[in-house]
Design a protein that fits this description.
The structure holds two protein chains of two kinds. Chain A has one helix at about 1-25; strands at about 40-50, 55, 65-70, 75, 90, 100-105, 110-115, 120, 125-130, 140-145. Chain A is of the alpha+beta class. Chain B is mainly beta. Chain B folds into two domains: about 15-200, Immunoglobulin-like (Sandwich), CATH 2.60.40; about 210-325, Immunoglobulin-like (Sandwich), CATH 2.60.40. Chain B is elongated. The chains are: A alpha+beta, B mainly beta.
Chain lengths: ~150, ~325
């Protein structure tokens, strides 16, 4: 009997601890945080450009060209070949998970293109693919927000 | 022992080779724009190792402007059967090229067949049915191509390319396999001598011979960036060795107006690719370069190359006539 008591004492302690730990746990309902709306407003400059895979960045002066987004409108500053050639309005196909951006030049039909918005080295980039001239000539501009 | 048996079994399943032992092409040297050209491709196809069902694959290298996929009709006659060649689905992967489509794989392996203007394409066909081939079976076949040439209406000099392969091995490199004492070849390729197309009202497009100037991309509109290259090594010109070369160009718009930019300035100056190379490049955005209005469209551009004084001018073929570049997509 004594022997039994000696053996069961640590077991009782463990059971009590287990009860404490069990009752101390509470299942929290985990709600995923909502994906942020992609805000592209601001002035963007070209940091890389290709034409049919050929790098244009060093042979064309892109430094003056800016693409400005502000309250649903876009403005082309110091124009270069681009998806559109007139200012107008823009929209994303999905504000949270956009895959396409639509440009509607004033007085013209909307045109859309693939839209990627990666973070590279901690900085947001905006990459657009389009053909301003012949359909077989594909340009990729990578933008970064101007300081 | 079991391991050896399994290895042999696996090898016999995987290796389904063929070898093309005869490969001849009958193609005219010249034609007129818009005519239908008959071309025949004869080959003998020798299968070794295991038997399998294979489709014949045919790759044809032609100028993009010819739109060969729409303008070529191909049938075949063979000792295994007759039928027609159909376009390879654009998503079909060539089995040896790590995920490349057949057209991309041919371009990667054979380039543009020695042509000098990167405006060629590989159009790929396969036989309408597959053929079960037995070990050692030999098939003699002829492809009969009926090709309407010059859909872009351009007078053209180009080298046409032909590749014969089969669907299972694709563009498999030569390995240790021997067929009849020779290395076993899984495909065959030929590029024919320069083919001349005349009678068109479009530009002269010479894929065969080095040109004093060339444009990249070859086909553009005025809203593209156009890179013009002057290769002074093609033939001696008055600009040989010039440290600075300039563009003197006139744009003609669809509303009948002309815009000339012919000063010798930073805007018109070519960049020499490597010092002393006699090769120069300039990239322009024609709409801005010539300063046309938004409502206008540039149809073509005539241009010369000049020295810093503007007195020395080099034109088409090193003559006093200007180079001409037409803005169009086809």
């Amino acid at each position: 009997m004594t022997q039994f008591y000696k053996l069961s004492k640590p077991i009782v302690v463990l059971v009590v601890l287990a009860l404490f730990s069990w009752t101390s746990c509470k299942v929290e309902s985990i709600k995923p945080s909502a994906e942020a709306v992609k805000d592209i407003s601001g002035n963007w400059t070209v940091i890389a450009a290709t034409r049919n895979g050929t790098d244009l960045t060093t042979i064309v002066d892109f430094s003056q060209f800016k693409l400005s987004f502000n309250e649903g409108k876009y403005t082309l500053i110091n124009k270069l070949p681009f998806l559109v050639s007139q200012n107008g309005t823009y929209s994303l196909d999905d504000p949270q998970y956009p895959f396409q951006i639509n440009f509607t030049p004033t007085g013209n039909k909307a045109v859309s293109t693939a839209f990627t918005y990666p973070i590279v080295n901690g900085v947001r980039q905006l990459t657009l693919t389009f053909s301003p001239g012949c359909p077989n000539n594909t340009y990729v501009y990578t933008f970064q927000k101007a300081n | 022992m079991l391991w050896c048996f399994c290895a042999v079994l696996i090898l016999s399943i995987v290796i389904t080779c063929c070898s093309i032992t005869v490969f001849t092409i009958n193609q005219p040297d010249t034609a007129t724009v818009g005519s239908t050209v008959p071309i025949s491709v004869n080959f003998t196809y020798h299968n070794i190792y295991a038997s399998t069902t294979e489709n014949l694959v045919f790759g044809f290298l032609a100028p993009k402007g010819w739109a060969a996929a729409q303008n070529a009709k191909i049938t075949y006659t063979s000792t295994a059967g007759n039928g027609k060649m159909v376009l390879m689905p654009s998503t079909t992967i060539e089995p040896q090229s790590s995920g490349l489509t057949w057209s991309a794989a041919l371009l990667k392996k054979f380039g543009i067949g020695g042509n000098l203007v990167n405006d060629m394409e590989w159009v790929v066909y396969q036989s309408d049915v597959g053929f079960p081939l037995s070990n050692g079976e030999e098939i003699t076949a002829t492809l009969n191509i009926s090709l309407k040439v010059g859909a872009d209406n351009n007078n053209t000099l180009c080298k046409l390319g032909y590749v014969i392969a089969e669907s299972n091995d694709g563009l498999h490199d030569v390995d240790g396999s021997i067929d009849g004492g020779a290395k076993y070849e899984y495909y065959a390729e030929q590029v024919t001598p320069c083919f001349m197309l005349t009678g068109g009202s479009g530009d002269i497009v010479d894929f065969c011979n080095p040109q004093l100037t060339s444009a990249d991309p070859p086909k553009t509109l005025d809203n593209d960036f156009v890179t013009i290259t002057f290769d002074g090594t093609v033939t001696p010109t008055a600009l040989m060795g010039a440290s600075k070369v300039y563009l003197c160009a006139t744009a003609n718009t669809s509303d009948g107006k002309t815009y000339t930019v012919c000063d010798q300035s930073a805007k018109t100056q070519f960049t020499q690719t490597v010092a002393g190379s006699n090769k120069y490049k300039i990239t322009i955005w024609p709409r801005s370069y010539f300063g046309i209005a938004d409502s206008q469209t540039i149809v073509n551009m005539n241009y010369f190359l000049t020295d810093a004084t503007g007195n020395i001018k080099v034109g088409y073929g090193n003559t006093a006539s200007p180079f001409t570049y037409t803005f169009k997509c086809n």
